[in-house]
Amino acid sequence: MAVEPKKKKPKKAAANILSAKMQNRMGYLFMAPWLIGFIIFTGIPFFATIYLSFFAVEQNISGFSTEFVGWGNYFTALFQNLYFNPGMVGYAIMIVMYTPTVVIISFILAYFLNMKLRGRFIFRTIYFLPVIVLSGPVMHDVIDTGGAGGYMDLSGIFLFRMLYYYAPAAGNVIQMLFENFAILLWFTGIPIVLFITGMQKINPALYEAARIDSASTWQILFKITLPLIKQTILISSIFTIAQLGMFASINPIYDLIRTSMMNTTGGLGLASAYALMFSLVTLVFIGICAILFRQKEV
Fold first, then answer.
1. Is the dihedral of CA 84, 100, 152, 124 positive or negative?
2. Is 121 helix (H, G, I), strand (E, B) or coil?
3. CB contact at 8 A, 233 and 250
């Protein structure tokens, strides 16, 4: 009677398992600097902000002294401070107006810059150059000194005066957008790059098949391009919302938080409460964008 030889595990399968483990370890190794930085510069300050929001923080000779006040800072912000609630309303209006405008302008510019045109790389550089030149303190100085707005007065235009007469609210919105048009163009820099990248990832065969079926340019845009870059629209919206909140001249809450932090009597705890409520409202807008542009499962 013949004895069957013992089956041995293939060496190839064992090597694949070992390779997968090594790849996972290498992935965590590459992520380690970001994770450490996130914990130190974001995670710990976030929980410290939550902790300080329930205390009155006072600076003295020995450093800082804290006194537990419970929900006192939140009560002060919502019911006693004259600037917080109007500032939050102004911030919400700014997000509702600016975010769709920035995203739409970015998509339109990216759509044309993605076409096969002569010199398109030069035009891409021209549109992205203001983001590099006006980054950081330069952009803050331009905004704070009024260099980015105030020069586009529409009061002398007949169509604008007619619109303002029949719909003052719409007229104010348009006036505000034109006054800050340079800021809007500056905010479009990164979203344009995101949209170009997203459109370049679309399979060209889809466009060719649509053209063979006699689809128009508008049909291709609304049936192919826009559905396939929903995630890019979501990322651009989130980036724009976060970026808009970082400029004091267009976000009154940012300036309120910064001013409160300089107050040596209870200011740090109150500023923490401001920051948490501001973050909550920001997360609400991000959640709305996530619902609007979520990718539906097939």
1. positive
2. helix
3. no
Closest CA to 188 of 282, 289, 98, 88: 98
Residue 9 predicted with pLDDT over 90: no
What secondary structure letter does DSSP report for 115?
A: S
Average pLDDT score, the chain = 78
Read out DSSP for 143-206? Answer: HHTTTTSS----TT-HHHHHHHHH-HHHHHHHHHHHHTHHHHHHHTHHHHHHHHHHHHTS-HHH
Residues 6+ apart with CB under 8 A from 261: 267, 268, 271
> Phi then psi for 293, rounded to 5 degrees?
-115, 25
* CA gap 75, 70 in Å, rounded: 10
Q: Are 80 and 163 in contact (CB under 8 A)?
A: no
* Angle between helix 230-244 and 189-200 (nearest 10): 170
SS3 at position 293 = coil
- What pLDDT is stored for residue 147 in this prediction? 45
What tokens were used for 234? 């979501």
- If we measure between CA atoms, which residue out of 144, 99, 96 comes closest to residue 254? 144
Q: Please write the tens of the pLDDT for every residue from 132-174.
A: 655 555 555 555 544 444 445 555 555 556 666 666 666 666 6
Look at 95-99, 164-168, 201-205, 230-234 and tell me which has the smallest mean pLDDT.
Answer: 164-168
- Residue 21: C-alpha distances to residues 10, 13, 17, 33, 38 (Å): 17, 13, 6, 20, 25
Q: Summarize the confidence of residues 110-135 as an average pLDDT.
A: 70
Does residue 69 sit in helix, strand or coil? coil
Beta bridge partners of 265: 58
Closest of 68, 65, 69, 85 to residue 77, by C-alpha? 85
Q: What are phi and psi of 9, to 5 degrees?
A: -65, 135
